[in-house]
Design a protein that fits this description.
Radius of gyration: 24 Å
Oligomer: single chain
Shape: elongated
Strand order of the largest sheet: 3-4-5-6
Mean pLDDT: 81
Low-confidence stretches: none
Length: 251
C-alpha cells in the first residue's frame, strides 16, 4: 500500500522566531567575545611590561644598580635643532621608531631613550607597542616614571639608584600611556583631570583599567581610578600628598 507523505516546511512565524532567538544570542555573545579578545590583549600588554621590567632589572644590575634615564638631548643647553630630533639614527632601534617628546615644544623628537638603553636586554621593539593601542601617533605605548629616571636629559647618565627606592614592589615604574610626554608624567599629572577625563582613552585602554610595571619588575592591572584616589594605588595618602605609588622616597 502506498502512502502519500506530505512534507511540512517552516512557517513564516517559526522562521521569525528562530531569527529573533539568534539575534538575542548574538547580542549576548558578541560582547563576551569582545571582552575575551580584550582580555587576551591585556595579557599580551602585561607580558610586554613584564619583559620590559626584567630588561630594566638586568640593566640595573649591569650599571651600578642605577635605573636608566628617560631620554636625553644632544645639546647641553637644550637648544632645539634638527639633530636633536633625529638623535638616534640606528635603524631598528626604539629611538629611531618612537617619538619621545619633551615639554619644550614640537616636533616631538626621536630622542635616545630608556627604551634604547634596555633594548640590548629585550631585543624587540614590539614590546613597546600595546596591542590595544589604536592611535598611530608614533609614540610608544608605555611611559616611564620621571621620579625614577632622575630627570636627566642633557647627557647619557642614569636615573636614581635601586637603593633609593624604599618600596620597589609598590612604586610605579612603567605604565600604559600612548600619549606625548609620557616619560614626564608622574603622580601629580596622573591624578589630574587630564588623565581621568580628557585623555583617559590613552591611559585606561584595558577594560576600563591600565597595566603598570613596578620598580622591582613585576606587573599588575589596575581599574580606572578617580582623581582623588589615583595616587593611592598601593599605599596611604591623599591626592598630591606623598604620592606613595609614584614617589620612590616615600616610606
Amino acid at each position: 500500500m502506498l502512502h502519500n507523505t506530505r512534507r511540512r516546511g517552516f512557517t513564516l512565524i517559526e522562521l521569525l522566531v528562530v531569527i529573533a532567538i539568534i539575534s538575542i544570542l548574538a547580542s549576548i555573545l558578541f560582547p563576551v567575545f569582545a571582552r575575551a579578545r580584550e582580555n587576551a590583549r591585556r595579557a599580551s600588554c602585561m607580558s610586554n611590561l613584564k619583559q620590559i621590567g626584567l630588561g630594566t632589572m638586568m640593566y640595573v644590575q649591569d650599571y651600578d644598580e642605577k635605573y636608566p634615564q628617560a631620554y636625553w638631548y644632544s645639546s647641553p643647553t637644550f637648544t632645539k635643532s634638527a639633530s636633536d630630533y633625529t638623535l638616534q639614527e640606528v635603524d631598528g632601534m626604539p629611538g629611531k621608531l618612537f617619538k619621545t617628546g619633551d615639554a619644550g615644544g614640537t616636533p616631538r623628537g626621536n630622542y635616545i631613550s630608556w627604551m634604547d638603553l634596555i633594548f640590548p636586554y629585550v631585543k624587540s621593539t614590539q614590546l613597546f607597542v600595546c596591542p590595544s593601542d589604536t592611535t598611530d601617533v608614533g609614540y610608544p605605548s608605555y611611559g616611564y616614571n620621571p621620579l625614577i629616571s632622575g630627570w636627566k636629559r642633557t647627557s647619557n647618565s642614569h636615573g636614581i639608584a635601586l637603593a633609593a627606592v624604599s618600596r620597589p614592589s609598590e612604586v610605579i615604574m612603567n605604565y600604559d600611556a600612548n600619549i606625548t610626554y609620557a616619560a614626564d608624567y608622574r603622580g601629580y599629572e596622573w591624578c589630574g583631570t587630564t588623565f581621568t577625563t580628557t585623555d583617559a582613552h590613552y591611559i585606561y585602554v584595558h577594560l576600563g583599567g591600565f597595566n603598570v610595571n613596578y620598580a622591582d619588575g613585576h606587573s599588575k592591572w589596575h581599574k580606572m581610578l578617580a582623581a582623588p584616589v589615583c595616587d593611592k594605588l598601593s599605599g596611604a595618602g591623599t591626592r598630591g600628598v606623598n604620592m606613595p605609588s609614584w614617589d620612590p622616597a616615600v616610606n
